[in-house]
Amino acid sequence: MQDQAPGDSRGDGWKGSWGPARVRLTDLAEDYARLLASQDPVAAEATGLPSRALLPDVGPEALAERSMVERRLHQLVRAVETPRSLTGGHGARSDGPEDDARDSTPDDDDPWGTAPSAVRVLRAHLLERLETSIDLIESADQGAELNILTSPFQGVRRRLTSLPTDLSCSGPCTQDWAGLVDRYRAAPRALTGIRDSLAVSAAQGVLPPRGQVEAVARQTDDLARILASQARSDLSGGGHVAPGGALGRDLQVAANDAAQAVARLGRYLRGELAPLAPAREGVGPSRHARWVRRMLGTSIDTAEVYQWARQELVDVVAAQDALAAEVLGTGARAGDLDAHLRADPSTGMSPEEFPRWAQGVADEAWDAVVGHLLDVPDGLGRPTVLLDTPGGGVHYEEPEPSRSLPGRVLRSFAIGDETVWPWAERTTVLHESVPGHHAHSGAQSLDPSLTLTLWQRHLGKVPGCNEGWALYAERLAIETGLLSKPADRFGWLAARRWRIVRVLVDLGVHSWLPVPAEIAALPGASGESQWDRSTVEAALRAHTVLGEGFLQFEVDKQLGWPAQGLAYVLGERVWLEGRERAQRGARAAGERRDLRAFHNRGIGLGSVGLDLLTRELG
């Protein structure tokens, strides 16, 4: 691994002087990765680190241990010394282990500002991730996390419903079924940990909204039914054949025990937590601020961003109207062009046809971008586009060389989505593949020359950086002609409109800002000054080209996942501002703008908080 990020002009002697600091910081980052892997099998699988955890452990004892170790790691990171030559013969270090965990912003005279990029970024990144995690745990927000998509229950559910893939039950299948039995046996303890952490947080007055409690309770009903059927050896619908003999009996007993544990959690949610939980949607301003720092790696002025997003929404609707007038004639509006583009069913495709079409889009983008606008590691390869199980949504999964799996874009369509419109999907494919996530987090996960540690590549990711890059990549696609047809540009504007309205929803719901008049007047909105589910539905429905099934999925997602909706547009803003500063600097120096070098340097930083990204891009 190299000691300097691309563009760092310091010589070998300087690199050598920072070597001990870098080694120490790398060791601490690996210690952090081992801690996370010890409590979460997903983290262990991502990093290849050993772990005895069969299911995520988020009980009170596990959270307390994590907070304690994170505080110690934070102290040790701050205690790492700079080279003696910079400090008059004495290495600079923190004031000691009692330093405030939130104090990670360097002073103007901080010698860490002169460190090679890889060292400087690793230290700042570690401090910021440790601080935000400690803050969530010690405020009881982490223990109170409950939603339908990303909370600890969903992590357990995914592990319990992941059946062996060898349907014929030959070869290593017996071992796979035995692993499932072990996960079932671990379920009662893991689910009790979730319940206990919710109870501990509730005792401190930190509760999830009642709507989320009730929604997850319904998910426990579904999971309990699935496990109960597996206890009866009923694996219908998946083509699986349950093992026989002693292993089969063990599977039935363990599945039954797991089903009962899930049912107990559901009874706790309905009978004990829901009556305590607030009816109002969202987590409230102070809790939202903590999630903003965790999701974005920065703090925001919520009122300022709220007003900015209101104006951005006006501007993007105006741009859609202008494009409609360009295509259909004077007076046409965005709704007219949307209807026009949907008028001929033959221009659409079925969900089954989507992967082949989307693969062509991703391949075209690869040819246009890689080696021209940015570089990728040799082992990355082109992304693969696949259909995911029905439900709605799309996501990217990084390459897994150990399993010979490439980077993957998985698109899930809602039940009832019979026609897929290429103009509405193209920008999403580019967002997830190239020049989006595949070229950013996919490259970071593989390339050792980027100077990233194992923790940085797999466990230190910041959504504001990742999603901001992917949204910036959509704009890059506009600039480079990958979205050149009017219909495709309309799809890009529609996707942008969707993401901007989600900023309003997130801030209104979770920071409890008043409903803007233009939102309150929408059909279906409650008309109340507080955001509620009907107003969220009305806002999202008015500003989307997506189907009703996907819309309902997004309503649940935004109500239960604070700050996630901010990551895209606010992250993109940092990437765009960084590019503008780099361009101004090049002009002032009389140099040619090198967009490829800018992208390579930005990707080489890893997935970092937006404050750190702003400093480094500048």
Number of helices: 24
* Strands, total number: 3
Which structural class matches the secondary elements?
mainly alpha
Radius of gyration: 25 Å
First-last Cα distance:
24 Å
Strand order of the largest sheet: 1-3-2
Tell me about the largest β-sheet.
3 strands, mixed
Contiguous uncertain segments of 5+ residues:
1-14, 94-106
Overall geometric form: globular
What is the gist of this entry?
With 618 residues, this protein is an all-alpha fold. It has helices at 12-17, 19-39, 41-47, 60-79, 117-138, 152-160, 173-203, 210-231, 245-276, 285-296, 302-328, 334-342, 354-369, 422-432, 437-446, 454-458, 463-479, 486-510, 517-520, 533-542, 548-560, 567-588, 595-604, 610-617; strands at 384-387, 393-397, 408-412. The protein is globular and about 70 Å long.
Annotation keywords:
single chain, 618 residues, mainly alpha, disordered N terminus
Question: Can you tell me about this structure?
Answer:
The protein is mostly helical and 618 residues long. The protein contains 24 helices and three strands. A three-stranded mixed sheet has the order 1-3-2, covered by helices on one side. Helix 4 packs antiparallel against helix 5, helix 11 crosses helix 12 and helix 14 packs across helix 18.
List the helices and strands and how they pair.
Blueprint lengths: L11 H6 L1 H21 L1 H7 L12 H20 L37 H22 L13 H9 L12 H31 L6 H22 L13 H32 L8 H12 L5 H27 L5 H9 L11 H16 L14 E4 L5 E5 L10 E5 L9 H11 L4 H10 L7 H5 L4 H17 L6 H25 L6 H4 L12 H10 L5 H13 L6 H22 L6 H10 L5 H8 L1
Parallel strand pairs: 1-3
Antiparallel strand pairs: 2-3
